[in-house]
Amino acid sequence: MPGTLQESVSVWKDDMQLKLVPGNSAGTVTAYYLSSKGSTWDEIDFEFLGNLSGDPYILHTNVFSQGKGNREQQFYLWFDPTADFHTYSILWNPQRIIFSVDGTPIREFKNLESMGVPFPKNQAMRIYSSLWNADDWATRGGLVKTDWSQAPFTASYRNFNANACVWSNGVSSCGTNSSPSTSRTNSWLSEELDSTSQEKLQWVRKNYMIYNYCTDAKRFPQGFPPECKLS
C-alpha cells in the first residue's frame, strides 16, 4: 500500500494508527516514513520487520541526512502490533526528532550540528507508506524468506493526523510573521521531552531496545559517530 501526501513539509508532527500484517509475516516490511528526493535526500523511518508467526515484530528506526543513514535503532514492542491498532508518531522540529509509540517516546535524535552531525532540516519531505518484500534482509538477516502461500499480506492504517509547515515557492507556512494563534497551534515547533517522557524513553531503551548503532563496535572500527558520545 504505497502512498504519499501531495505537499512537501519542512517540519512535522504526526500520528498514524497501524495494525500490522498478522500470522507469518516473515520477509515483509511495513514502512511509514518521511523522505525528500535526490541523491542527498533526508529521511525519517519507521519500518516494521515481519517475522514467523508467534515471534515478535522488530521496529526498525533510522534517520538519514544528506543521503547518509547508518543510524539504526531497533526495538521489540511491548504488545502484539497485529492484534489491534496502535499509534506511531514522528515529531520533527529544528531541535530534535522524536519517535513515539502510543505516546511513549522510544527514540530521540537531537540536532547536534555544532558537533558536525548532519541533521535533516533544509529539505522538504513527504510522508510515505508501503508494504513490501524485503526477504533478503528483513527476517533474521534474510535467512527466513517470504512464504507467498500466506499472501495477500495486509497492513491497515487509520486516523492519520498531522501538523506541518508547508513549503510553497521557497517560503514556509510557519514563518516568523505567524499570528499568535498560529504560534500556539505550532507549539510543537519547540517541543521537547519533559522529565516524565525522559523516564519513559529510558524504560524503553532498557527493556526493549535490541540494536543500537552506537554500541556496534564492529561496524565502526575507526570510532563511533560523534552523537554517540551523548547517547
Automatic annotation (TrEMBL):
EC assignment: 2.4.1.207
InterPro entries the record matches = Beta-glucanase-like, Beta-glucanase/XTH, ConA-like_dom_sf, GH16_AS, XET_C, XTH
Task: Spell out the Gene3D superfamilies in the cross-references.
Answer: 2.60.120.200
Looking at the UniProt entry, the stretches that span the membrane are: none
Q: Please state what the protein is called.
A: Xyloglucan endotransglucosylase/hydrolase
Q: PTM details?
A: Contains at least one intrachain disulfide bond essential for its enzymatic activity.
Q: Which residues form the GH16 domain?
A: 1-157
Localization in the cell: Secreted, Cell wall; Secreted, Extracellular space, Apoplast
